[in-house]
């Protein structure tokens, strides 16, 4: 299938291209150029000057935990373990257990998709996520190795950091683990420990790092390890987050992640807002919108070792696109001020997955089957059977639950 976008503002690595034409063939970007070609392709979408970004990458989520409300009775926590115990003994967890994992995965996928995310790192052992990869409307990455965390009370995910890290190096994969998610001795020593066992390197993707000290930050920078920052979840559970300014000044590659909605934000656009609000409050200055743009596009692509295919608008890459409307003239400010109502179209693998109801004809032309749906009060068109999913959730729970990350109606 071949089609083109015309009259758009394309946010490319070289800057914002005005009056851009983006041509797409068989799921990949063929070209991005200025001006409107006379030889129109059979399917042409005129965006009337809207911004086109690469599809966003959510660098940390737990799709099985796509549920609400948040759990946090005994906040602030010493580390993640008492939170996990509170979670698993909570009424909301018992209610969540009434749903099938597939329902939670689909809810999580739609949560991400409607906020412009096309790729998610779902941090969980592979045997849990594998059955749901194919049917997910977003791309759930499965090429990674993992540990849950680096401490004696870690959940038993993977075969231990040494083996998992060796596999990552061998296969050119990211090795993903939570780290320093708390303030006990082990959390504070986790980076030193990881370094001592030879597992801190370019393949290492560390999530949280709330208890990082200056030595840890230096170690990460030297090893070229990556950090995934989840400020909303950190601030909710602990009232603190990592020393992000020092991390950025050290030149560490930082990505943003939502974590699950049971501790974190409702979606990646909200996470952007949390990150910027925290930065402004903590340091008395703005977190540069362009840096934030990179944290949800090219930085996670680099950390997760998928930048040959994803993370930027360039010829040859997979056509994952996010179209946003905005009052702002600056593209990066537009992304930072975006909410669900700004998302006008999401394209994954060169096919529309979600967008304005007025684009229904375009969906039809590209052969995508979806449903008409109202999201946050606006008429939209969404691929798959989201309404069937919600009906099945209502049947399983015995009542119609309000899920703020998927505000249908
Ligand atoms: Zn997590």
TrEMBL record:
Q: Where is the Amidohydrolase-related domain?
A: 176-330
Reading the lineage from the top rank, the first entry is Bacteria
Name of the protein this chain belongs to: Hydrolase
- Native source species: Leptospira semungkisensis
Give the GO molecular function terms: hydrolase activity, acting on carbon-nitrogen (but not peptide) bonds
Q: Which UniProt keywords apply?
A: Hydrolase
């Amino acid at each position: 299938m071949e089609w083109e976008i015309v009259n758009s503002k394309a946010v490319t690595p070289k800057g914002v291209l005005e009056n851009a034409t983006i041509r797409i063939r068989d799921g990949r970007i063929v070209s991005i150029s200025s001006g409107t070609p006379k030889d129109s392709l059979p399917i042409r979408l005129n965006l009337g000057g809207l911004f086109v970004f690469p599809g966003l990458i959510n660098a940390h989520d737990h799709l099985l935990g796509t549920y609400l409300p948040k759990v946090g009775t005994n906040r602030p926590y010493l580390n993640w373990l008492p939170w996990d115990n509170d979670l698993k003994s909570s009424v909301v967890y018992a209610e969540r257990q009434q749903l099938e994992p597939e329902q939670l995965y689909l809810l999580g996928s739609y949560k991400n998709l409607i906020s412009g995310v096309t790729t998610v790192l779902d941090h969980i052992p592979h045997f849990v996520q594998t059955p749901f990869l194919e049917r997910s409307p977003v791309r759930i990455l499965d090429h990674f190795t993992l540990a849950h965390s680096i401490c004696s009370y870690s959940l038993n995910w993977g075969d231990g950091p040494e083996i998992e890290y060796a596999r990552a190096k061998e296969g050119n994969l990211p090795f993903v683990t939570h780290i320093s998610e708390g303030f006990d001795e082990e959390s504070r020593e986790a980076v030193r420990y990881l370094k001592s066992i030879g597992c801190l390197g370019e393949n290492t993707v560390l999530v949280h790092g709330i208890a990082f000290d200056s030595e840890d930050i230096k170690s990460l920078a030297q090893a070229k390890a990556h950090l995934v920052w989840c400020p909303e979840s950190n601030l909710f559970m602990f009232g603190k987050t990592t020393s992000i300014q020092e991390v950025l000044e050290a030149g560490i590659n930082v990505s943003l992640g939502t974590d699950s909605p049971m501790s974190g934000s409702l979606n990646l656009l909200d996470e952007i807002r949390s990150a910027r609000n925290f930065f402004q409050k903590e340091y008395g200055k703005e977190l540069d919108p362009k840096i934030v743009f990179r944290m949800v596009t090219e930085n996670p692509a680099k950390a997760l070792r998928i930048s040959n295919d994803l993370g930027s608008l360039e010829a040859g890459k997979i056509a994952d696109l996010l179209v946003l409307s905005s009052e702002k003239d600056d593209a990066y400010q537009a992304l930072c001020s975006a909410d669900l109502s700004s998302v006008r179209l999401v394209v994954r693998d060169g096919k529309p997955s979600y967008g304005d109801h007025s684009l229904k004809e375009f969906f039809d032309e590209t052969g995508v089957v979806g449903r008409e749906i109202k999201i946050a009060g606006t008429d939209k068109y969404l691929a798959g059977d989201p309404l069937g999913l919600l009906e099945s959730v209502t049947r399983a729970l015995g009542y119609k639950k309000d899920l703020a990350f998927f505000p249908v109606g």
